[in-house]
Amino acid sequence: MGPANESRVSPNAFWLMGIPGLEHLHVWIGIPFCSMYAVAVVGNVTILAVVRAERSLHEPMFLFLCMLSVTDLVLSSSTLPRMLCLFWLGAHDIAFDACLAQMFFIHSFTAMESGFFLAMAIDRYVAICDPLRHATILTHSRVVEMGAAVVLRGVAFFSPHPILLKQLPYCRTPVIAHTYCEFMAVVKLACTDTGATKRYSLVAAFGMGSCDCFFIAFSYILILRAVFHLPSQEASLKALGTCGSHVCVIFVFYSTAGFTFLTHRFGHSVAPHIHIFIANVYLLVPPFLNPIVYGVRTKKIRDHALSILQVKLS
After folding, report:
1. Is residue 1 assigned to a domain?
2. What is the pLDDT of residues 87-142, one digit of tens each?
């Protein structure tokens, strides 16, 4: 019996198709996905452990980095284990409530990821453009307030998603053409007019993402302008290299998220396997890259991690 047979899936469950057109490659696609997930978990846990152990790292930059690491762990863990079960074990069924819970974590923590990128950009702006006032502007209490605001914003804007979907009637075959429960993929299964529901989701995602992206870009433009005016060429190159790597990670996140968003709205001619593959990339790559770019390339974290490792091995 195929997934299109409605008796295959109970009324309280959905059938995750995976990547349409690439079902025969699911096993092989799962290998790099699993590797990236392993790196994301080890890297982000290492950052959290190092910052927790070293009081000298209790600075705004590293506190925001810890918040980003927690977000990455939740975001990747809410999707990858379930996705690998689909790829490797053929576990296509997902309970309706589990689907809604996964959707909440994906959308709210993606919004938090965007918010923490913005918070880190603000921290870098103050540190480079106004270094003498950095400690007084970004106090520990202010860092906590900014972190709490990012979390509350993500929860407030995207907690209505599962509530709205819970109220809809579903009279079509409950097959989700995706690897995870994404809002737009699920709302298409409803047999009632969902125009207002779709508009709310699109406005919330686009409004939040575009605002964050604008202010991040503005911050880094000011940072780069300050970097080029540094008296030491060595200092300029070092700051430029750090900012460049940060911008690359941010660009990957927003470009893939933007592609996924615009494809839902306008890109009906985009092949489903391309759309879904890139939708996976924007959830997988940032948690994989963030520990490398913000952790391994940050000398303080790298040195403390190596010293802790040496102590454990000795």
Report:
1. no
2. 999 889 999 999 999 999 999 999 999 999 999 999 988 988 888 898 899 999 99
Per-residue confidence (pLDDT) for residue 42, from 0 to 100: 92
Do residues 137 and 126 touch, judged by C-beta distance below 8 A?
yes
- Give phi and psi for 298, each to the nearest 5: -95, 115
Are the C-beta atoms of 311 and 99 separated by less than 8 Å? no
The verdict on residue 158 lying in a domain is: yes
Asked whether residue 313 is assigned to any structural domain, the reply reads no
Q: Which domain holds residue 69?
A: 6-307
Position 265 pLDDT exceeds 70: no
The strands making up 175-176's β-sheet, listed across from edge to edge, are: 93-95, 13-16, 175-176
The CATH code of the domain that includes 129 is 1.20.1070.10
| Domains held by the chain: number | 1
Question: Which tokens sit at 85?
Answer: 């079960």
Residue that has been written with the tokens 């809410």 in this structure? 78
Residue that the structure tokens 């880190």 belong to: 120
Task: Please indicate, yes or no, whether the overall pTM of this predicted structure exceeds 0.90.
Answer: no
Asked whether residue 293 is domain-assigned, the answer is yes
Task: Spell out the long-range contacts of 54-58 with Cβ–Cβ below 8 A and sequence spacing 24 or more.
Answer: 54/304, 56/300, 57/300, 57/301, 57/304, 58/140
DSSP-derived secondary structure for 70-98 = HHHHHHHHTTHHHHHHHHHH---EEEHHH
The pLDDT tens digits of the residues spanning 216-228 come to 999 988 888 887 7
Q: Which of 31, 209, 202 is nearest to 114 (CA)?
A: 209
Check residues 242 and 88 and name the one with the higher pLDDT. 88
Among candidates 295, 299, 312, 307, which has minimal Cα distance to 46?
A: 295
Mean pLDDT across the chain: 85
pLDDT tens digits along 190-207: 888 888 888 888 888 888
220's CB contacts (< 8 A; 6+ apart) are 121, 124, 125, 243, 246, 247
